[in-house]
Every structure is written in structure tokens, then in C-alpha cells.
Amino acid sequence: MFISRAWLTKLVLGIFKRSQRRIRLGFCGVILGLLSVSATSSVNWSLRDFCPAGFVLRDGGCYLQSMYYDYHSLQNAGVGGLKIALPELRQGFSPQKIDLGRLLFFDPILSKDSSVACASCHDPDKGFADGRAVSVGIDGQLTERSAPSLWNAGFLQRLFWDGRAASLEAQIIGPLFAPNEMAATPDQLLHKLQASADYRALFQQAFGAGEINLEWVYEALAAFESSLVSLNSRYDLYANGYHQALTEPEIEGMNVFRSFVARCAECHTPPLFTNQQIAVLGTPEPEGKPLDPGAQRVTGDPSQRGGFKVPSLRNVALTAPYMHSGRFATLRDAVAFYTGGRGHAVPEGEQLSLHWHIWEPNLTDAELDRLVDFLQTLTDESFKPQVPAQLPSGLAPVVGTLGAGAN
């Protein structure tokens, strides 16, 4: 009997995902989950008491299950092979805190005029980015940069393109109170949440006692964002020993990616496909826009002028356009930049300290195509969370900038 590669890959992928989850969801747990997104009164609202897919409940907290935990760390020794340990994840949050954060993430009550939510710029259907060159905030105001994906954000040691936040909580504060993003004030945000009997009851469920405070808002959102894990792509099947998960062109692309010629893996190190460092690449800004100083604005270090955090490439096929300014519309455009020659796009008069990996690899068109083939194997949305059907605030969930009323 003939068994196709596609059918066999699909079968093994299903087995892999089920083994990764290792969660026990009884009938009662499923019913509770449905109630948590469909109830409308304070009597019926109840937070989930089970962990998101991929996590198991232990000692009251949710902990990720992954084959990568069985591997050794590089310990800063280089790129290494495919079986490399994960960095530390923010985890151990209770199921209730994670679920409360999920509700808050999609609720425009957090913004000044209840028009914008976290999910306005971090749309689950767009790789938790927004598909725009620069994000759109309250009243249609433009922000400075594109919205980074939130997939695997719980693993990251620094956040924002310029790396200015060292924790998820610190990152969350930025857009909540930025006048061109959600434009809330701390007092206004607390007043709106405390005015909701349903939210008061849910914060009681998640945190145990006391009135709502800002630290709990930040923690709940951080708990939810830490649960956004993407590690079950076809690449991961290949990395964990199932060779047939990738096609020959995709494997060729992986070999280019890992080669000393292209050097992609030096900065985009598996398994997160980022080394979490700041790198000065010399990428061009959109026409007519001055050079973004990047990390220099944060550190004051001239050597970091034009420097930005190396992004994870997980689900990168879903998050076009690319770079901090959305300068490149496609993955093909983005990978072609790196073979254009060292400093070829640096504006006249700028002396940037370009990363030493930026040079002239002279990749062929075929090699660039194979790189794109490989990057598409990093797509995995198997643990994408459910968008709430209703919210404790009574407002409609907001997903994407169009849902926020932006032009």
C-alpha cells in the first residue's frame, strides 16, 4: 500500500502535538471552559481551572511540556546542533491568572476610550502581530515601529525592538499608557475595571483577595502572554528526529540558514531562532523617513545606533511586513537584503557599527528561495488561544486594528 509523505507527516505531527500537550481535559473541564467565554453575568463568570494546551498543572501552576527540555544548553558555546535546550520560560502562573489575562488581552476596556485592545496590534490570526509597517493606536494614530510577534514572548529577556523592557510587565506598561497607543492613565484604568462587578469577581478568583490593583493587571497579562508557545512546527518534528517532516528543498534551505556563508543561525539561534541580542544591520528606512536610532536612544551608546533586537523567526511567515519599520513586504525581500553587501543601505553620512555577521555572502537566487522555503517550516499555531466570545466588561472583543476602528 502506498503511503504519501503528506499523509505520514500529518499523522506524526498529530502524535507529536498530543505528546507535547500531556494535559488531561475531562468532560467537566471542557464545559467549564465553554462557560468561561459564554457567560454574561457575575454569577456565571468563572475562570478556567485547567492549563492551556502544552502545559500541565503542577502545584497550582502551569508548566510547559516540551521535548526541548530533554536537551542540553549551548551555554554560549556557539550555534550547536538542532537539539538545543530552551532558555528559561516565565511559567508557573495559575490557570485562573492565565485565563484572566486572556480576557483582558482582547478587552478594549483597557484603553482610554474603550476602542483599542492589546489584540488590536497583536492579532492571533497574524502571528500576534498586525500586518502593518507601523502599528495603529487610539484615534488612528501611528506608532513609530511595527508590532513584534508575541509568540514565545515568555522566553525573551528583553522586549520592544530597542530592548528597553526587561520583563513582560514592563513591556505591558508601555502601550497601555502611551498616548498614541492605548492612551489610558493608571487611575482611569483601575476605575474602569473596579466599576465592573464581573471583573472584580474574576480578579478575586485569580488573586484571592483585595481590590484590583495595577500589578495584578500586569501579572495577568504577562501570564497569558507567557502561555503563547509555538514549538510544534514541521521544523520541530525534523529537529526531534523525524526526517520526513521536511522536503528536500526545505532541508537545503535549512543548510543554507545554518551555513558559515549565510550565518543566519548565528543570530537566529534555534530553538527560539533568536540570540536575544541587539544587532546593528543597516536596514533601510521607508522612503523619506530618517534613520531610527534604535537601541542608542535607550542606552546612549553610539555603537548601538540603528541597533534592534534580533527577533524570533517563529511564525515569521505570518508576520509580514518585516524589520522594525516594516520596510520589506515579503520574506524573499527580507532575506535578499542580507546578500546586498555590507552597509549597502546605510544612509549617507551615517557611520554605523554594523554587526560583524553582516557581509557579502553572495547567495544565489535559488539559495534565497530555499531560505524562504525553510522559514515557512517554522509556522505552528497549534496552541493558538481562543478569542473570547464575550467579555466581563460587556464590550465586544477587539481583534486587529480594523476592529479598533482605525483607518
Question: Over the alpha carbons, how many angstroms does the gyration radius reach?
Answer: 22 Å
Structural class label: mainly alpha
Number of strands: 4
Overall geometry? globular
Give the oligomer, counting copies of the same chain as homo and different chains as hetero: single chain
Strand content: under 5%
Please estimate the helix content. Answer: 25-40%
Give the terminus-to-terminus CA distance. 55 Å
Order of helices and strands: HHEEHHHHHHHHHEHEHH
Number of helices: 14
Low-confidence spans: 18-43, 403-407
Please tell me about this protein's structure.
This protein has 407 residues and is mainly alpha-helical. The protein is built from 14 helices and four strands. The chain has helices at 5-21, 27-38, 95-105, 118-121, 168-177, 186-194, 197-207, 214-226, 234-239, 248-258, 264-267, 296-299, 331-337, 365-375; strands at residues 55-58, 61-64, 278-280, 307-309. It has a two-stranded antiparallel sheet. Strands 3-4 form a two-stranded antiparallel sheet.
Topology:
Elements: H1 5-21, H2 27-38, E1 55-58, E2 61-64, H3 95-105, H4 118-121, H5 168-177, H6 186-194, H7 197-207, H8 214-226, H9 234-239, H10 248-258, H11 264-267, E3 278-280, H12 296-299, E4 307-309, H13 331-337, H14 365-375
Antiparallel strand pairs: 1-2, 3-4
Helix pairs in contact: 3-7, 3-8, 5-8, 10-14, 13-14
